[in-house]
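Worked example (supplementary).
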Amino acid sequence: MAARLTKRPRRVLIVDDDVDGVDALKYLLESEGYVVDSASNGREGLQHLLDEPKPCVVILDLAMPVMTGWQFLAARDDDDALLKIPVIVVTASRPTSYARGEPVMVKPVDLDALLDQIASCCHPRRPPTHEH
Amino acid sequence: MRGTAPVIPRVTRIGRHAVQFYDDEIFLATAVSEFLTHGLKEARPCVAVATPRHAAAIQGELARGGAMSADRVTFLDARTLLNGFLVHAEPDAGGLRATIGKVIGELAELAGPGPVYVFGDMTGEFWREGHAEAAVALEDAWNDLAAEQTLFLLCGYDAVLMAREGAGTFDDVCRRHAHVLPGRRFAARDSDNVWLEVARLEDQVRRLSHVQGQCEDLTALVEAATDGRERLLNAGSHELRNPVHALRLQLQAALRALSAPLADIQTVRLRVERAEAQALKLSRILDTALSPASFSRSSLDLSADDAADWSVTLRRSVAAFADERHDVTVTTAIDDDLGACEQTRVGQAIRHLLNHVGNVTRTTTIHVVAVAEPHAVRTRVENGIGRSMGDPTALVPSELVRPESRGGSLWMTRQLVEAMGGTLVVATRPDGPMTYEITWPRPAAQGIGSVSR
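After joint prediction of all chains, the assembly is encoded as:
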């Protein structure tokens, strides 16, 4: 899995109100060499995107208080700069009507598949690795 | 329509029950022999309940038919049979069933599934005696019998006798028969026994309609079950997926820490402990999800433990009103460690309120405001943001404080509220707090006053 890394650390933003899930995913991504920020709802996530160094990908939950993942995506659509940042939706709900085009993963996620998705966003020139 | 008598009285009319009017007995004998011949061709049992004169004429017609032997038809004397079930000169439905009904049943059993062809001439006895009401009552008894047994029943009515009775009686007779076959003066005989085919088709339509009704009932049951299952699974799925997700990631983090060249045992232990906490949370959610009996619509039967979990605040609000106190405002702080999803948000909010989860990681304040109305207690739960836990209006009885949450969802909460006879309405607006409004019947609608708890 080290093959996913480049020399320059890349930044990932997790927007999810599930504290325990965020805690574990943050540890795992950091062990892969990513710098990880987190936000517990869509509004905090948007603020991170405006204030902090831009991440190479956003891991986004859909059902959150204050501002949902759907509202986050709608707000992102209005900002060309933010629209360039790819989003991976990771949700506990089955998004039966999801048709926006972002990759969707349903919790509990397959970690390797998620890491591959993140790598394909953060290292677009490198094809994703498949470890079996 | 109120107070208006129905124009046509309700009469049970069986589709296999016909009346043949006749002007002369030869016409009747021909019509009846054609009817019975139809039955004989179908290899079905045939019975003729006739006066001796009619019986002789029918037998003659059958004999003229050639191939079909008259001795294959069971002839019964109309007067003798009628006397067997008269009670105070009136026909008795039970007596009819015990006499001719028994004969028909035995013949049907011998012949196997299918109709028994019956010609009935007994009402003619009543008409000749001028006893119209008894004749009509006998037709009703026949209809009752035809509803229980499979038979093609043909009655013979003397058109001359009927003409004496007047239009009202004629209508009564016609309403008690599904098929009315006119006499010679009015039309040709139904030589092809079309009415039998019509009756057969009506039977078939009735059977198919019954099957269709059963199918529709089953479909509705399956759809309702599927809908309930979907709602339960959707709510349960979301409740379970987050802790399963966290459990899985924590275990993978523990494995990752363990497989590092210099394994950090403290990190491993921390990850395992957090995984264990998720497992515990999952088992509690399952405990709750697997106890649906507590949330029956018809009754709210909560054990003491359950009550502490779910309903103590609501119960106390209700009790305050029952004690003729009202204007209860309960504000309590909650944490939202499970994360909120649109469809379970209400369930989580109220669950957190009721459980008062102690594991605070992020502060959300829920206001529960119970307002007295003439006939109801209305509780509004507003999920606000950024309220201080030190809100001076906060009232959190110590016994409400529980260290960990238990599962639940909007679905379960709705069951709970509805079991208490109330309703739950959710209102949302963009970028604003969600409002959950619970209304239930007010135990005491008097005694206005404030209460502080």
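Two points are worth noting when inspecting this output. Confidence is low (pLDDT under 50) at residues 1-11, 290-412, 442-453 of chain B. The longest strand of chain B covers residues 363-372.
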